[in-house]
Amino acid sequence: MKQGFFALASLLVIGILGLVVVFGGPVFATGRQQQPFLPTATFLPVENLEYTLETVALTADPIVFDDQTVDGYVFSNMTYVTQYPQGMRFTATITPPEGREILAVNVMYESAGGGRGRAQADLTANPNEWQGIPFDRGGLPPWQKFKITFRVSDDSGASIETAPVDVVYIDPTREWYRVESQDVIAYWFDFPEELGVEVVTAFAQVRDKYEKGFGGLLPFKPIVVIFPPGDSIGEFEPGGIANPRTTGQASNDTQSAVLRVRGLEIEEIRKDCIWNEPRDLAWQMRFAASVATHEVAHLYQYEFFGGRGPAWWIEGQATFFETDSGPFDQRMRHLAEMGVDLATLQDQGPSGMVGSPAADGCTHLGYEMGTSFINWLVNTYGGYDMHRQIVELMDSNVSLQDALEQVTGATFLDLERQWRTYIGLNPDPVIIPTLEYQFPATPTPFGQ
Q1: Spatial separation of the C-alpha atoms in residues 203 and 314, rounded to whole Å
Q2: C-alpha closest to that of 105 among 80, 126, 129, 70
Q3: List of domains in the chain
Q4: Which residues of 231-242 are buried (b: 16+ CB within 10 A; e: fewer)?
Q5: Can you give the pTM of this predicted structure?
Q6: Which residues 6+ apart lie within 8 Å of 139 measured at CB?
Q7: 254 close to 169: Cβ distance less than 8 angstroms
Q8: I need a surface site. Which of 237, 280, 307, 375 has the fewest CB within 10 A?
Q9: Residue closest to 419 by CA, chosen among 275, 306, 316
Q10: What does the alpha-carbon distance between residue 207 and residue 250 come to, in Å, rounded to a whole number?
Q11: Could you read off the pLDDT of 317-372 as tens digits, one per residue?
Q12: CA distances to 78, 171, 444 from 164, in Å
């Protein structure tokens, strides 16, 4: 997870990240009989899945709204023109009542998730015509939904605002596919229609798991925007530059996620990963659909407990709710057999390790440690009902550690010991002690 799409976005709070560290000494739990791998979610084929699939090829022609009269002000010729990826241009002719002078006009916008902002409007060369351009410097992916109003301040001290109009941030530069089911709306291009079918199928498969694990479904239908491999995902970013490590990101303000399909060629940072799978078109589409369920799980986190928690829990939980979360337990046990110890989950625990391969050549170790721990917890301590109780406690501002201990009746450290035993490590993690703060000596000013 991932950054929000614009500056006012409320990001998931994941705390101060630690590092995954390899410690010396014996780490593999020798002399113990290995436990069998615990089950993971099995997703059955979806029958009679209902969805609509269409192509979307829109232009940058003006969209005209009805005139409005508010407190004597007449708002006419109100139009919207997309300038994707450099924002949305809104224009209105504003005629004030006699004897009133307009001092300022702003275009006010509110995203689907309640994020608010404004763009200053300026007079054009036409009489009484004002124009404002939200996101004129980029930072917003296409197909996001907004409510837009014009707000006027005048010399009487009054503030006048139009009734909102609904708009969608259109990309007129290419033809997109669009699919909608009861669970999700998705847009994509440069991949066949089957990608959309993969996405809606994945969300239908994971729906029950979301509902049981979080205690309900999202009260909105998330939007997922999918870019092909390459740099096009960066076109809406300020400067038009893509983060080379970005696979997906989510924003609770826009109630949406954006992701990039992985390329057929394995990335340089993952070229030595022993868990790499052969890649073809079917793999690309399946993996993209799984990433979509991961990113939308972040929206569940924000909706159901404010998205608070350490990175390994936030990302591990989102991976746990994917349709293809990978061989996480096998990976943990293989690392243990290699003699690799894992950083403790205590305090803030490990970071995600997105950009640094572990001893097995693979990245995202912190994610998969979290997934393995959560899957072990669900299988050992009461299933999805237990997971839901943790979510509910965290929604009441109970910390993750306290929530785990209240629901399971075991200390967090004992839970970690049990999990480490399961994956084949020595039970006791290496916990770096927190040193007591030493106040620096206060020098006596010279001459006193």
Answers
A1: 19
A2: 129
A3: 63-168 (2.60.40.10), 175-423 (1.10.390)
A4: eebbbbbeeeeb
A5: 0.89
A6: 5, 6, 7, 236, 237, 238
A7: no
A8: 280
A9: 316
A10: 18
A11: 999 999 999 999 999 999 999 999 999 999 999 987 888 899 999 999 999 999 99
A12: 12, 22, 64
Nearest to 143 by CA among 229, 242, 257, 66: 257
d(CA 425, CA 340): 9
Lowest mean pLDDT among 6-15, 271-280, 344-353, 429-438: 6-15
> Of 347, 326, 350, whose CA–CA distance to 22 is shortest?
350
CA-CA distance, 136 to 117, in Å (whole number)?
Answer: 13
Give the C-alpha separation, 444 to 448, whole Å: 7
Q: How many CA atoms within 13 Å lie on the side-chain side of 207?
A: 15
Give the β-pairing of 185-188 and 73-82: unpaired
Percent of the residues in the chain that have a pLDDT greater than 70, as a whole number: 89
Please give the distance of CA 424 from its chain centroid, rounded to a whole number: 32
What is the C-alpha to C-alpha distance for residues 194 and 217, in angstroms, rounded to an integer?
25
CA atoms within 13 Å, Cβ hemisphere of 150: 31
Euclidean distance between CA atoms 274 and 294, whole angstroms: 23
User: Is the C-alpha dihedral spanning 138, 140, 143, 145 positive or negative?
Assistant: negative
> Contact, 94 vs 150, CB < 8 A?
yes
Instruction: Check: CB of residue 281 under 8 Å from CB of residue 334.
Output: no
